[in-house]
Specification:
The chain is α+β, with helices and mostly antiparallel strands. About 35% of the residues lie in helices and about 20% in strands. It has one domain: endopeptidase domain like (from Nostoc punctiforme) (endopeptidase fold (from Nostoc punctiforme)). The protein is globular. The N and C termini lie far apart (about 80 Å). About 25% of the residues are buried.
């Protein structure tokens, strides 16, 4: 009787642990390096954004997104228990591109080189004016008109930039400008 209970329980435990392990993508390479995505990640996010799987080329970016997808919103949060929009931008830019951003959206908007919406590329920042406040929300542009952000109601999600609810608050976008430190500017 003990053997009949023990064997199915053992299989259930192994299945649970293997399923948990396989849910998270692995970030390979170093920040700023473009590495090929895992095929399952490329398929998943190409389907979400309506692009060919071959268009998903930055494995670090989409592995990062996969690790954070669904994380709840938490004002001031910077971990998987909760993250806010500017915190997600800080973590993504740092871990995927090796770029250090200031912590708040008001400071982040001053770090971009403005672009027209049609010029957006993966990793660019998109800003919104919610509740009558300039640049109160930020997301990271992906491709095909989609961006990832930490929604106050749904957590980390990918949405279309032209979503009827959010697009009316869209205010600015651009690429992050590299920060020159004192050493690099004094040598010129």
């Amino acid at each position: 009787m003990i053997k009949r209970f023990y064997l199915p329980s053992l299989f259930a435990i192994v299945f649970i642990f293997s399923a948990c392990h396989s849910k998270r993508a692995v970030m390979k390479g170093t920040p700023g390096e473009i590495v090929a995505p895992q095929p399952s990640i490329a398929e998943k996010y190409s389907s979400v954004m309506g692009v060919d799987a071959g268009a998903i080329q930055n494995g670090r970016l989409y592995a990062f997104i996969d690790q954070w997808m669904g994380t709840p919103y938490k004002f001031g949060g910077l971990d998987h228990d909760g993250v806010d929009c500017s915190g997600l931008a800080v973590l993504l830019e740092q871990q995927v591109y090796g770029i250090n951003l200031p912590r708040t959206t008001g400071q982040q908007v001053n770090m971009i080189k403005r672009k027209y919406e049609e010029e957006l590329q993966e990793g660019d920042l998109v800003f919104f004016d919610y509740d009558g406040k300039k640049f109160s929300h930020v997301g990271i542009y992906l491709q095909n008109g989609y961006y990832v952000h930490a929604s106050a109601t749904k957590g980390v999600i990918i949405v279309k930039l032209h979503d009827p609810y959010t697009y009316k608050y869209f205010s600015r976008c651009g690429s992050v400008m590299p920060v020159m430190d004192a050493d690099s500017t004094s040598s010129k």
